[in-house]
């Protein structure tokens, strides 16, 4: 696919959506000083050219559920088939093919302890020709939301960013329980994070007042996370990698917060496993990735080991299977 370069207004629109994926075109237009029609036209064009997607994702940590990053070893000739099979599962958030073709990496979100145990102890091990299973539970996210990647465009000025930033999340004092109406709303938002109130009414069978109130509750408690995805080549960044860091426990929080501010880092989280800090990194070239590892990661005190794996192809992002 030919890379679609983005102009300053495109970048501002993308960052506005990362701040608030459901911000109205009129609100964005007012802050950016353009017409509603211009914002709507740019949004439609970005959907066609760089596959812009806004997806509603449940933050499992707010629901007392765990998210996992699972690394599956396999022979090179079955990696693509395995990835495609996993992409069809509703409990997978993302699927990546990793350099060497002998690993498939995926984000998974079992909805209960029983589902988790069945998945990690039985189902994955029964898949033919898997040679290894390594599961890493997300303990704390430093950057990127619930397995969501940030592109960090920094296109908005501070005043624009402040005007577009939604109200702060007020976490509930105890885990939130969802009912059938909430689940139906989240299912619709997984398909389109910008679904209208009318569309959400149709999906839930509820009145506009109920839908609006439920939507506000899901957002203000942080249960609903709006993820923004688009083809990374549009930013000139063509090398994606996952870095698995082993960090001294006393330095884990400090280093996690430090790497979260790096422009190259789209996602950072503390995890279980031999490596206890995982980063999703995006660079313009392998030379830039080398510079990032040596000049930024290499200067942080407390990092003991670093394993870097290149992402060859992303097969699924949230509800989207990529072709």
TrEMBL record:
SMART domains to which the protein is assigned, alphabetical: HTH_ASNC
Domain of life the protein comes from: Bacteria
Protein name in the entry: Lrp/AsnC family transcriptional regulator
Pfam annotation, one family: AsnC_trans_reg
Alphabetized UniProt keyword annotations: DNA-binding, Transcription, Transcription regulation
Classification via InterPro entries: AsnC-type_HTH_dom, Dimeric_a/b-barrel, Tscrpt_reg_AsnC-like, Tscrpt_reg_AsnC/Lrp_C, WH-like_DNA-bd_sf, WH_DNA-bd_sf
Domain HTH asnC-type: 6-66
């Amino acid at each position: 696919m030919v890379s679609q370069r983005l102009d300053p207004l495109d970048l501002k629109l993308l960052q506005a959506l990362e701040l608030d994926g459901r911000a109205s075109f009129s609100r964005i237009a007012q802050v950016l000083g353009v017409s509603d029609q211009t914002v709507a036209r740019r949004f439609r064009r970005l959907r066609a050219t760089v596959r812009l997607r806004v997806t509603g994702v449940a933050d499992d940590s707010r629901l007392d559920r765990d998210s996992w990053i699972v690394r599956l070893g396999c022979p090179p000739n079955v990696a693509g088939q395995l990835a495609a099979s996993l992409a069809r599962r509703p409990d997978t958030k993302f699927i990546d093919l990793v350099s060497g073709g002998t690993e498939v990496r995926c984000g998974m979100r079992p909805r209960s302890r029983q589902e988790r145990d069945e998945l990690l102890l039985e189902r994955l091990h029964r898949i033919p020709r898997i040679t290894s299973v390594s599961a890493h539970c997300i303990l704390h996210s430093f950057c990127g939301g619930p397995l969501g990647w940030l592109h960090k465009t920094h296109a908005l000025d501070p005043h624009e960013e402040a005007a577009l930033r939604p109200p702060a999340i007020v976490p509930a004092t105890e885990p939130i329980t969802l009912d059938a109406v909430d689940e139906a709303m989240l299912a619709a938002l997984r398909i389109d994070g910008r679904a209208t109130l009318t569309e959400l009414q149709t999906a839930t069978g509820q009145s506009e007042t109920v839908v609006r109130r439920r939507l506000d509750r899901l957002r203000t408690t942080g249960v609903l996370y709006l993820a923004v995805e688009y083809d990374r080549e549009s930013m000139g960044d063509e090398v994606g990698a996952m870095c698995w860091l082993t960090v001294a426990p006393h330095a884990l929080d400090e280093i996690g917060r430090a790497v979260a501010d790096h422009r190259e880092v789209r996602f950072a989280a503390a995890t279980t496993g031999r490596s206890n800090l995982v980063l999703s990194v995006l660079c313009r070239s392998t030379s830039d990735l080398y510079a990032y590892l040596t000049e930024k990661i290499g200067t942080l005190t407390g990092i003991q080991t670093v394993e870097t794996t290149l992402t060859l192809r992303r097969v699924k992002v949230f509800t989207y299977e990529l072709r």
